[in-house]
Amino acid sequence: MSLIVQKFGGTSVADLERIQNVAGRIAATRGNWDRVIVVVSAMAGETDRYINLAHELSPDPAGRELDILLASGERITSSLLAISLSSRGVPAISLTGGQAGIRTEGTHTRARVRTIQPKRIHQELDGGKVVIAAGFQGVDQFNEEQTLGRGGSDLTAVALAAALEADLCEIYTDVDGVYTADPRIEPSARRLERISYDEMMELASLGAKVLQPRSVDLAAKYRLQLVVRSSFTEGEGTLITPDTGGIEAPAVNGVSCDKKQSKLTAVGVADRPGIAASLFGTLAEKSIIVDMIVQNVSDHGLTDISITVNRDTAEEAERVMCETHAGGDAGKITRDDAVAKVSVVGIGMKSQAGVASRTFAALARERINIMMISTSEISISVIVQEAQAEDAVRALHREFIA
Ligand code: ASP
Ligand code: MG
Question: Which of 12, 78, 150 to mutate to test the pocket of ligand 1 (most atoms within 8 A of CB)?
Fold first, then answer.
Protein backbone atom coordinates (compact mmCIF):
# COMPACT_ATOMS: atom_id res chain seq x y z
CA MET A 1 0.00 0.00 0.00
CA SER A 2 1.32 3.40 -0.93
CA LEU A 3 2.03 5.85 1.87
CA ILE A 4 2.89 9.55 1.64
CA VAL A 5 3.82 12.05 4.35
CA GLN A 6 3.08 15.69 3.54
CA LYS A 7 4.31 18.49 5.77
CA PHE A 8 2.90 22.01 5.61
CA GLY A 9 4.95 24.85 7.08
CA GLY A 10 3.75 27.90 9.00
CA THR A 11 3.09 30.17 6.01
CA SER A 12 1.05 27.39 4.34
CA VAL A 13 -1.35 27.34 7.30
CA ALA A 14 -1.09 31.01 8.25
CA ASP A 15 -4.87 31.67 8.21
CA LEU A 16 -8.18 29.88 7.68
CA GLU A 17 -8.19 30.45 3.94
CA ARG A 18 -4.78 28.83 3.62
CA ILE A 19 -5.80 25.97 5.88
CA GLN A 20 -8.73 25.36 3.54
CA ASN A 21 -6.36 25.49 0.59
CA VAL A 22 -4.18 22.85 2.26
CA ALA A 23 -7.27 20.73 2.94
CA GLY A 24 -8.02 20.90 -0.80
CA ARG A 25 -4.53 19.63 -1.62
CA ILE A 26 -4.81 16.79 0.84
CA ALA A 27 -8.20 15.80 -0.59
CA ALA A 28 -6.55 15.60 -4.03
CA THR A 29 -3.58 13.63 -2.63
CA ARG A 30 -5.97 11.07 -1.26
CA GLY A 31 -7.05 10.25 -4.81
CA ASN A 32 -3.53 9.06 -5.65
CA TRP A 33 -2.30 7.49 -2.42
CA ASP A 34 -3.68 4.72 -0.20
CA ARG A 35 -2.51 6.31 3.01
CA VAL A 36 -1.86 9.93 3.82
CA ILE A 37 -0.12 11.33 6.90
CA VAL A 38 0.08 15.09 7.28
CA VAL A 39 2.35 17.06 9.59
CA VAL A 40 1.69 20.73 10.29
CA SER A 41 3.59 23.64 11.77
CA ALA A 42 2.06 26.39 13.88
CA MET A 43 0.55 29.33 11.99
CA ALA A 44 3.32 31.65 10.76
CA GLY A 45 4.72 33.80 13.55
CA GLU A 46 2.86 32.03 16.36
CA THR A 47 5.85 30.26 17.89
CA ASP A 48 7.75 33.55 18.04
CA ARG A 49 4.72 35.22 19.55
CA TYR A 50 4.49 32.62 22.33
CA ILE A 51 8.20 32.91 23.08
CA ASN A 52 7.84 36.69 23.36
CA LEU A 53 4.81 36.39 25.64
CA ALA A 54 6.75 34.10 27.95
CA HIS A 55 9.72 36.47 28.01
CA GLU A 56 7.49 39.38 28.86
CA LEU A 57 6.61 37.53 32.05
CA SER A 58 10.07 36.25 32.90
CA PRO A 59 13.61 36.69 31.60
CA ASP A 60 14.24 32.98 31.99
CA PRO A 61 11.05 30.89 31.68
CA ALA A 62 11.35 27.20 32.56
CA GLY A 63 11.93 24.92 29.57
CA ARG A 64 9.13 22.63 30.65
CA GLU A 65 6.59 25.45 30.61
CA LEU A 66 7.89 26.75 27.29
CA ASP A 67 7.37 23.31 25.79
CA ILE A 68 3.74 23.14 26.89
CA LEU A 69 3.25 26.62 25.46
CA LEU A 70 5.08 26.06 22.17
CA ALA A 71 3.57 22.64 21.44
CA SER A 72 0.12 24.22 21.47
CA GLY A 73 0.76 26.16 18.24
CA GLU A 74 1.01 22.99 16.16
CA ARG A 75 -2.01 21.50 17.91
CA ILE A 76 -4.17 24.43 16.90
CA THR A 77 -3.33 24.01 13.21
CA SER A 78 -3.66 20.22 13.29
CA SER A 79 -7.15 20.35 14.76
CA LEU A 80 -8.29 23.18 12.46
CA LEU A 81 -7.06 21.22 9.46
CA ALA A 82 -8.85 18.08 10.65
CA ILE A 83 -12.06 20.09 11.09
CA SER A 84 -11.68 21.57 7.61
CA LEU A 85 -11.05 18.15 6.02
CA SER A 86 -14.00 16.55 7.82
CA SER A 87 -16.29 19.35 6.65
CA ARG A 88 -15.29 18.45 3.07
CA GLY A 89 -16.22 14.85 3.70
CA VAL A 90 -12.62 13.66 4.07
CA PRO A 91 -12.31 11.61 7.26
CA ALA A 92 -9.40 12.97 9.28
CA ILE A 93 -8.08 12.97 12.82
CA SER A 94 -5.54 15.22 14.49
CA LEU A 95 -3.02 13.74 16.92
CA THR A 96 -0.62 15.45 19.30
CA GLY A 97 3.01 14.34 19.05
CA GLY A 98 2.54 12.09 22.08
CA GLN A 99 -0.62 10.53 20.63
CA ALA A 100 1.22 9.97 17.35
CA GLY A 101 3.73 7.89 19.32
CA ILE A 102 6.66 10.26 19.12
CA ARG A 103 8.93 9.60 22.10
CA THR A 104 11.63 12.12 22.86
CA GLU A 105 14.68 12.55 25.06
CA GLY A 106 17.08 15.32 25.98
CA THR A 107 16.71 18.97 26.87
CA HIS A 108 13.43 20.87 26.88
CA THR A 109 12.87 23.08 23.78
CA ARG A 110 15.49 21.14 21.81
CA ALA A 111 14.71 17.49 22.41
CA ARG A 112 15.64 14.59 20.14
CA VAL A 113 13.31 11.94 18.75
CA ARG A 114 14.12 8.70 20.58
CA THR A 115 11.62 6.31 18.99
CA ILE A 116 8.28 6.28 17.25
CA GLN A 117 5.55 3.90 18.32
CA PRO A 118 3.21 4.08 15.35
CA LYS A 119 0.42 1.87 16.69
CA ARG A 120 -2.19 4.61 16.95
CA ILE A 121 -1.28 6.05 13.56
CA HIS A 122 -1.68 2.60 11.97
CA GLN A 123 -5.06 2.17 13.65
CA GLU A 124 -6.32 5.46 12.30
CA LEU A 125 -4.92 4.81 8.81
CA ASP A 126 -6.53 1.34 8.86
CA GLY A 127 -9.78 3.08 9.70
CA GLY A 128 -9.47 5.11 6.47
CA LYS A 129 -8.55 8.42 8.06
CA VAL A 130 -6.03 11.01 7.06
CA VAL A 131 -3.79 11.35 10.11
CA ILE A 132 -2.72 14.90 10.94
CA ALA A 133 0.14 14.98 13.40
CA ALA A 134 1.07 18.15 15.24
CA GLY A 135 4.69 18.79 14.29
CA PHE A 136 7.69 19.77 16.42
CA GLN A 137 6.73 17.78 19.53
CA GLY A 138 6.65 14.53 21.43
CA VAL A 139 6.64 13.25 24.99
CA ASP A 140 9.57 11.97 27.01
CA GLN A 141 9.71 8.85 29.19
CA PHE A 142 7.87 10.68 31.98
CA ASN A 143 5.13 11.79 29.59
CA GLU A 144 6.39 15.36 29.69
CA GLU A 145 5.86 17.48 26.59
CA GLN A 146 9.01 18.30 24.66
CA THR A 147 9.59 20.28 21.49
CA LEU A 148 12.25 19.48 18.91
CA GLY A 149 13.95 22.84 18.35
CA ARG A 150 13.04 25.57 15.89
CA GLY A 151 11.88 24.25 12.55
CA GLY A 152 11.26 20.88 14.19
CA SER A 153 8.12 20.05 12.23
CA ASP A 154 10.36 19.02 9.34
CA LEU A 155 11.97 16.53 11.67
CA THR A 156 8.56 15.19 12.72
CA ALA A 157 7.65 14.65 9.07
CA VAL A 158 10.89 12.89 8.18
CA ALA A 159 10.89 10.79 11.36
CA LEU A 160 7.32 9.62 10.71
CA ALA A 161 8.11 8.93 7.05
CA ALA A 162 11.14 6.87 8.08
CA ALA A 163 9.35 4.97 10.85
CA LEU A 164 6.34 4.14 8.67
CA GLU A 165 8.48 3.46 5.59
CA ALA A 166 6.70 6.06 3.49
CA ASP A 167 7.24 6.04 -0.27
CA LEU A 168 7.59 9.80 -0.35
CA CYS A 169 7.90 12.74 2.04
CA GLU A 170 6.85 16.13 0.67
CA ILE A 171 7.73 19.34 2.48
CA TYR A 172 5.39 22.15 1.47
CA THR A 173 6.64 25.64 2.10
CA ASP A 174 6.40 29.19 0.74
CA VAL A 175 9.18 28.77 -1.82
CA ASP A 176 8.97 26.43 -4.78
CA GLY A 177 12.16 24.55 -4.06
CA VAL A 178 15.80 24.83 -3.08
CA TYR A 179 17.57 27.73 -4.76
CA THR A 180 21.18 28.44 -5.67
CA ALA A 181 20.91 31.37 -3.21
CA ASP A 182 18.14 33.20 -1.40
CA PRO A 183 16.25 34.92 -4.28
CA ARG A 184 15.45 37.85 -1.99
CA ILE A 185 19.17 38.53 -1.77
CA GLU A 186 20.23 37.43 -5.26
CA PRO A 187 17.44 37.88 -7.85
CA SER A 188 19.21 35.72 -10.46
CA ALA A 189 19.21 32.68 -8.14
CA ARG A 190 17.52 29.66 -9.73
CA ARG A 191 15.70 26.59 -8.47
CA LEU A 192 17.66 23.33 -8.38
CA GLU A 193 15.76 20.33 -9.79
CA ARG A 194 17.67 17.96 -7.59
CA ILE A 195 20.35 18.13 -4.97
CA SER A 196 22.24 15.47 -3.03
CA TYR A 197 21.60 14.82 0.65
CA ASP A 198 25.14 15.90 1.43
CA GLU A 199 24.80 19.26 -0.27
CA MET A 200 21.35 19.83 1.20
CA MET A 201 22.69 18.95 4.62
CA GLU A 202 25.41 21.57 4.26
CA LEU A 203 23.03 24.18 2.85
CA ALA A 204 20.46 23.51 5.56
CA SER A 205 22.92 23.69 8.42
CA LEU A 206 24.67 26.66 6.86
CA GLY A 207 21.50 28.68 7.04
CA ALA A 208 19.46 28.11 3.87
CA LYS A 209 16.40 27.71 6.13
CA VAL A 210 14.30 25.68 3.67
CA LEU A 211 14.70 22.54 5.77
CA GLN A 212 15.74 21.91 9.32
CA PRO A 213 19.25 20.35 9.15
CA ARG A 214 18.47 17.44 11.47
CA SER A 215 15.61 16.42 9.20
CA VAL A 216 17.94 16.21 6.20
CA ASP A 217 20.38 14.13 8.19
CA LEU A 218 17.62 11.70 9.11
CA ALA A 219 16.29 11.56 5.55
CA ALA A 220 19.78 10.68 4.32
CA LYS A 221 20.15 7.96 6.93
CA TYR A 222 16.97 6.26 5.73
CA ARG A 223 17.52 7.23 2.07
CA LEU A 224 14.06 8.72 2.05
CA GLN A 225 12.68 10.38 -1.08
CA LEU A 226 12.30 13.97 0.02
CA VAL A 227 10.72 16.73 -2.05
CA VAL A 228 10.53 20.44 -1.22
CA ARG A 229 7.78 22.31 -3.04
CA SER A 230 5.45 25.27 -2.72
CA SER A 231 1.96 24.98 -1.29
CA PHE A 232 0.90 27.97 -3.40
CA THR A 233 1.98 26.82 -6.87
CA GLU A 234 2.05 23.57 -8.82
CA GLY A 235 5.79 23.26 -9.61
CA GLU A 236 7.94 20.14 -9.40
CA GLY A 237 9.97 21.49 -6.51
CA THR A 238 13.42 20.13 -5.66
CA LEU A 239 14.12 16.45 -5.16
CA ILE A 240 16.67 15.60 -2.49
CA THR A 241 18.33 12.32 -3.38
CA PRO A 242 21.38 10.13 -2.80
CA ASP A 243 22.39 10.97 -6.38
CA THR A 244 25.49 13.12 -6.82
CA GLY A 245 24.16 14.89 -9.88
CA GLY A 246 26.45 13.75 -12.68
CA ILE A 247 30.14 13.24 -13.25
CA GLU A 248 31.05 16.87 -13.89
CA ALA A 249 29.16 18.45 -11.01
CA PRO A 250 29.76 22.21 -10.74
CA ALA A 251 32.21 23.28 -8.06
CA VAL A 252 29.47 25.23 -6.30
CA ASN A 253 25.76 24.44 -6.35
CA GLY A 254 24.57 26.94 -3.79
CA VAL A 255 25.52 29.97 -1.71
CA SER A 256 23.95 30.25 1.71
CA CYS A 257 23.86 32.85 4.41
CA ASP A 258 23.14 32.51 8.11
CA LYS A 259 22.61 35.85 9.79
CA LYS A 260 21.73 34.34 13.14
CA GLN A 261 25.30 33.77 14.24
CA SER A 262 27.25 35.04 17.20
CA LYS A 263 30.98 34.94 17.77
CA LEU A 264 32.39 34.40 21.24
CA THR A 265 36.04 34.57 22.18
CA ALA A 266 37.79 33.42 25.31
CA VAL A 267 40.73 35.82 25.39
CA GLY A 268 43.99 34.87 27.07
CA VAL A 269 43.22 31.23 27.84
CA ALA A 270 45.96 29.20 29.49
CA ASP A 271 47.61 27.08 26.81
CA ARG A 272 47.70 23.69 28.49
CA PRO A 273 45.96 20.32 28.05
CA GLY A 274 42.35 20.08 29.23
CA ILE A 275 41.27 23.70 28.83
CA ALA A 276 39.42 23.22 25.55
CA ALA A 277 38.00 19.95 26.85
CA SER A 278 36.49 21.61 29.91
CA LEU A 279 35.13 24.57 27.94
CA PHE A 280 33.47 22.45 25.27
CA GLY A 281 32.38 19.88 27.83
CA THR A 282 30.30 22.47 29.66
CA LEU A 283 28.84 23.84 26.43
CA ALA A 284 27.87 20.31 25.41
CA GLU A 285 26.24 19.65 28.78
CA LYS A 286 23.93 22.56 28.05
CA SER A 287 23.23 21.19 24.56
CA ILE A 288 24.73 24.31 22.99
CA ILE A 289 25.80 23.51 19.46
CA VAL A 290 29.18 25.01 18.65
CA ASP A 291 29.71 25.66 14.98
CA MET A 292 33.13 27.06 14.08
CA ILE A 293 36.11 26.80 16.41
CA VAL A 294 39.36 28.68 15.97
CA GLN A 295 42.30 28.61 18.35
CA ASN A 296 45.19 30.99 17.86
CA VAL A 297 48.86 30.15 18.03
CA SER A 298 49.97 30.39 21.64
CA ASP A 299 51.86 33.47 22.77
CA HIS A 300 53.57 33.57 26.22
CA GLY A 301 51.57 30.50 27.29
CA LEU A 302 48.26 32.15 26.49
CA THR A 303 45.94 31.72 23.55
CA ASP A 304 42.50 32.85 22.29
CA ILE A 305 39.70 30.46 21.45
CA SER A 306 36.88 31.79 19.27
CA ILE A 307 33.67 29.95 18.56
CA THR A 308 30.45 30.67 16.74
CA VAL A 309 27.01 29.59 17.93
CA ASN A 310 23.45 30.23 16.87
CA ARG A 311 22.46 33.68 18.17
CA ASP A 312 19.54 32.16 20.12
CA THR A 313 22.04 30.35 22.33
CA ALA A 314 24.68 33.12 22.46
CA GLU A 315 23.60 34.50 25.81
CA GLU A 316 23.63 31.08 27.44
CA ALA A 317 26.96 30.24 25.78
CA GLU A 318 28.46 33.47 27.11
CA ARG A 319 27.23 32.68 30.61
CA VAL A 320 28.61 29.13 30.44
CA MET A 321 31.97 30.36 29.16
CA CYS A 322 32.20 32.99 31.88
CA GLU A 323 31.37 30.42 34.55
CA THR A 324 33.79 27.82 33.22
CA HIS A 325 36.58 30.32 33.24
CA ALA A 326 35.68 32.06 36.46
CA GLY A 327 38.58 30.13 38.01
CA GLY A 328 40.94 32.42 36.16
CA ASP A 329 41.68 30.33 33.09
CA ALA A 330 40.62 33.07 30.72
CA GLY A 331 41.27 36.79 30.77
CA LYS A 332 37.83 37.65 29.50
CA ILE A 333 34.98 36.52 27.27
CA THR A 334 33.93 38.76 24.39
CA ARG A 335 30.80 38.39 22.32
CA ASP A 336 29.91 39.82 18.89
CA ASP A 337 26.32 39.42 17.67
CA ALA A 338 26.74 41.41 14.46
CA VAL A 339 28.28 38.61 12.42
CA ALA A 340 26.98 36.28 9.72
CA LYS A 341 28.17 33.12 8.05
CA VAL A 342 28.30 32.92 4.27
CA SER A 343 29.09 29.63 2.57
CA VAL A 344 29.57 28.06 -0.83
CA VAL A 345 28.51 24.43 -1.19
CA GLY A 346 29.09 21.90 -3.94
CA ILE A 347 30.02 18.25 -4.31
CA GLY A 348 32.10 19.25 -7.34
CA MET A 349 34.65 21.06 -5.18
CA LYS A 350 35.95 17.67 -4.01
CA SER A 351 37.64 17.29 -7.39
CA GLN A 352 38.38 20.88 -8.36
CA ALA A 353 41.31 22.98 -7.22
CA GLY A 354 41.17 26.71 -6.56
CA VAL A 355 37.67 27.02 -5.08
CA ALA A 356 39.00 28.55 -1.86
CA SER A 357 41.16 31.10 -3.66
CA ARG A 358 38.26 32.10 -5.94
CA THR A 359 36.04 32.48 -2.87
CA PHE A 360 38.46 34.74 -1.03
CA ALA A 361 39.29 36.76 -4.16
CA ALA A 362 35.61 37.39 -4.90
CA LEU A 363 35.13 38.68 -1.34
CA ALA A 364 38.29 40.77 -1.47
CA ARG A 365 37.09 42.52 -4.65
CA GLU A 366 34.04 43.70 -2.66
CA ARG A 367 36.28 44.74 0.24
CA ILE A 368 34.64 42.24 2.54
CA ASN A 369 36.79 41.28 5.49
CA ILE A 370 36.88 37.63 6.56
CA MET A 371 36.87 37.06 10.34
CA MET A 372 36.89 33.26 10.47
CA ILE A 373 37.13 30.47 7.89
CA SER A 374 36.09 26.86 8.03
CA THR A 375 35.85 24.17 5.38
CA SER A 376 34.43 20.73 4.85
CA GLU A 377 34.91 18.40 1.92
CA ILE A 378 32.08 20.11 0.05
CA SER A 379 31.86 23.60 1.55
CA ILE A 380 33.78 26.74 2.41
CA SER A 381 32.33 29.06 5.04
CA VAL A 382 33.41 32.48 6.19
CA ILE A 383 32.30 34.66 9.07
CA VAL A 384 31.85 38.28 7.98
CA GLN A 385 30.22 41.37 9.42
CA GLU A 386 26.46 40.97 9.28
CA ALA A 387 26.12 44.24 7.35
CA GLN A 388 28.24 42.81 4.53
CA ALA A 389 26.63 39.36 4.38
CA GLU A 390 24.26 40.04 1.48
CA ASP A 391 27.02 41.63 -0.62
CA ALA A 392 29.08 38.54 0.07
CA VAL A 393 26.29 36.23 -1.15
CA ARG A 394 25.92 38.24 -4.36
CA ALA A 395 29.66 38.30 -4.99
CA LEU A 396 29.98 34.53 -4.56
CA HIS A 397 26.89 33.76 -6.64
CA ARG A 398 28.33 35.89 -9.43
CA GLU A 399 31.69 34.18 -9.16
CA PHE A 400 30.46 30.58 -9.22
CA ILE A 401 26.90 30.34 -10.48
CA ALA A 402 25.51 33.21 -12.55
N1 ASP B 1 6.59 26.16 14.93
C2 ASP B 1 7.96 25.75 15.14
C3 ASP B 1 8.90 26.88 14.77
O4 ASP B 1 8.46 27.95 14.41
C5 ASP B 1 8.30 24.48 14.42
C6 ASP B 1 8.18 24.55 12.92
O7 ASP B 1 7.57 25.44 12.37
O8 ASP B 1 8.72 23.65 12.27
O9 ASP B 1 10.07 26.73 14.89
MG1 MG C 1 10.06 25.53 8.76
Answer: 150
